[in-house]
Every structure is written in C-alpha cells, then in structure tokens.
TrEMBL record:
Organism, scientific name: Kingdonia uniflora
Pfam family name, one: ADH_zinc_N
UniProt protein name: Uncharacterized protein
InterPro entries, sorted: ADH-like_C (IPR013149), ADH_N_2 (IPR041694), GroES-like_sf (IPR011032), MDR_fam (IPR045010), NAD(P)-bd_dom_sf (IPR036291)
Domain spans labelled Oxidoreductase N-terminal: 9-116
Residues forming coiled coils: none
Superkingdom per UniProt: Eukaryota
Any one Gene Ontology molecular-function term assigned to this protein's record: 2-alkenal reductase [NAD(P)H] activity
Domain Alcohol dehydrogenase-like C-terminal residues, every copy: 167-291
Amino acid sequence: MANQEIVNRKIVLRDYVVGFPKESDLVLISNEKIKLVVPEGSENGVLVKNLYLSCDSFMRDRMSKDCSYISPFTPGEPLTGYGVAKVVDSRDPEFKAGDLVWGMTGWEDYSLITRKDPLIKIEHTDVPLSYYTRILGMPGMTAYIGFMEIGSPKKGEYVFVSGATGAVGQLVGQFAKLMGCYVVGSAGSKEKVDLLKNEFGFDEVFNYKEEQNLEAALKRHHFLVIYFENVGGKMLDAVLLNMRNHGRIAACSMISQEHVQNLILVVTKSIRMEGFVVFNYYQRYQEFLEFTMKYIKEGKIKFVEDKAEGLESGPAALLGLFTGRNIGKQIYGTYEFGKPFVVPLLTLFSPSVSSGRMRYYFLL
Ligand SMILES: NC(=O)c1ccc[n+]([C@@H]2O[C@H](COP(=O)([O-])OP(=O)(O)OC[C@H]3O[C@@H](n4cnc5c(N)ncnc54)[C@H](OP(=O)(O)O)[C@@H]3O)[C@@H](O)[C@H]2O)c1
C-alpha cells in the first residue's frame, strides 16, 4: 500500500482574486499521484488523510495578494485551512499512523504537514470528529480565550456579543450564560434572533439591521460590563456610549471595517480594551478542552453545524459562506447530501439566515 501511487485531488486557487471571489477562482485538480509515505528529506513530516475541512471567513482575505491578516494562498497550490485528519505516516515522534488530529491542513485528499502550527492530537473520540473544526477547534478556542481570559467574567455581569450567531459569537454567549452573566446579542435577521434566544439561551437579542439607533437599542439592555467585539464601526461607537466605567472589551474582530468615532470613551470611562489572535494561545488548548468537554458532556452547550459532502463541493461551500447562496435550509438533525452520517448529539439544525455568513465544513 505504501509504495502504491494514488491520485491526490486538490482544490487550488487559480490566481489571486481582485474583488469578490467567484467559484471559478477555485479549481479541482486531480493530476497528481503520491505514495502514502512521508518522503525522504521531509524530517518531522506528517502525512495525513483529510476527513473534514472547514470553511472560515479569514480564507476570503487569503485569496487576495494584499491579504494583511496572515500569508495569502499561493496560486496553483491547494488552499489551506483548519481540518480534521487521520495520520497515514509520520516522521514526527509525536504522531503515529492511525492518530486523529486537527489543525492546519490542505484542501486535498492527503496532505504532508511539515509546519505543525497547530497540529493537535485528538484524544476524545466520543464526540463527532467534526466538532474539532468548530466547538473543540479554532472558533471554540477563540471564544474561550476572548471571553474567559480577556473578558474575565463574573457572575451577574452584563455582556454584549456582536456577530452573535457566528461560530465564535454563539459560543461566547453560551459561555457567558454558564458563568451566570446576563447576555445580550446582536444579529442580522429574525431567524438568527430567534435562534439565539430560543436555542442558545441569550437573554436579549436585537436585529441590528432593523434598529434606527444602535445606541438606543443597547440602552434598552442595561449598561454593559463586558463587550465581545466582532463588528467594530457604528456598533462599537454605540457600545462605548453604553459601557460602564471600568468595563472590558475583548476585541476579536472588526468585520465592518467602519471608522470609529467614540474611541475617546475608552479613556474617559477607563475601559480596558484588548485585542487578541487565537494562534498565540494554542498552548492553552488542554485547559480549553477540559472546560468545554465538561459542558458538552453535560449537554449544556449547543452548536450549529452545516455540512457539505465531498472535496468537489468545497468551492461552492466556501463561496456560500460569503454570498449566502447556499442558505435557507432549516433541518433538524444532520444536514447531508444523501448519505446517513453519525448524528452529532448536539447539532440542532442549520439556521435559515439571510445575510450569507453561514459556517460550512465539508467531509471527504
Ligand atoms: N482574533 C482571532 O484570533 C479570531 C479568531 C477567529 C475568528 N476571528 C474573526 O472573528 C470574527 C467572528 O468569527 P466567526 O468565525 O464567528 O465569523 P462568522 O461565523 O463568519 O460570523 C461573523 C458574524 O458577523 C456578522 N457580521 C458580518 N458582517 C457584519 C457587519 N458588517 N456588521 C455587523 N455584523 C456583521 C454576521 O452576522 P449577521 O448576519 O448577523 O450580520 C456573522 O454571523 C470574524 O471576523 C473572524 O475573522 C478572529
């Protein structure tokens, strides 16, 4: 088997994208054959078979040459992103064939991973493996570090989460409830508002697209102690007006990229605002895992997943994340294209949303 050559299909970026990405910017190629062994000279290489690949917002930036967040993708090379995989062969003493791992991998059937940042062995297989692309992976870790570390919550505190139905926001809200906080969220459609209130237990949610005055919308929900920032711009301006003195802001993202006018209030209200990048905290993964697994096993955390099947469905799934084209399914249990799959215990349904920033991963 090791010497046998097999086709390794890949999804590659045709060329750097200018403007909005299109499905045709991504191409499935199947002209490469590989042997299922780590090649000579690739010391500490780990060859994996990819099982789940995740579509994440930051991947859009990486299609552009001017990506400022992390390095851009290389045209002609497979996209890279978070995934779950099984080790096929390893020259790294930390991993052996058969191990299940999650971390940065390629959009291809098999990947040779030489830079392991992060590549984390999966120890708990009593939850669906797909969880390691979400609740037990990067988005979960982001919610945990941003809220538990930077937000530093105490029982009874008022918390606001923007972008609350995102993979990160939905967990922040639930962590906040578990810590005994009062949680307010904002979302961009009625379906999302209902989801947050009825399924994720947010105390109050408002549809920011329907509010004429964000400051007034926030004022209805008491003065805030902690703000988990995903949006920036007008939302941040309104939040600053409604923060208590000595409040805390965990700056995860500023998706809107709008100008902020009220930043002086950080000074006058003695607000502590701290940005963070989750990549710098993976050494705390075990701590996060213990914290989160406990609540998963107790059935106290819920999570929405949306799946597509097959490497070939990756481009449409990724573009659907940016355009909303694939949205509108509201299905209980798992969302599959045709074939039965292990039912994730806590997967509820794919929310019907209109704004197009759904989460996808696809299985191979
Ligand atoms: N700091 C870090 O280390 C780190 C780690 C992971 C992710 N991130 C970033 O954190 C953000 C949240 O991550 P995620 O995975 O939860 O993203 P996501 O699933 O794509 O969700 C983002 C949410 O933001 C809302 N949104 C998008 N554009 C908006 C706008 N212009 N104004 C207001 N709301 C807007 C959307 O909800 P509506 O439809 O309701 O508008 C969407 O649900 C992303 O920007 C991501 O890149 C940062």
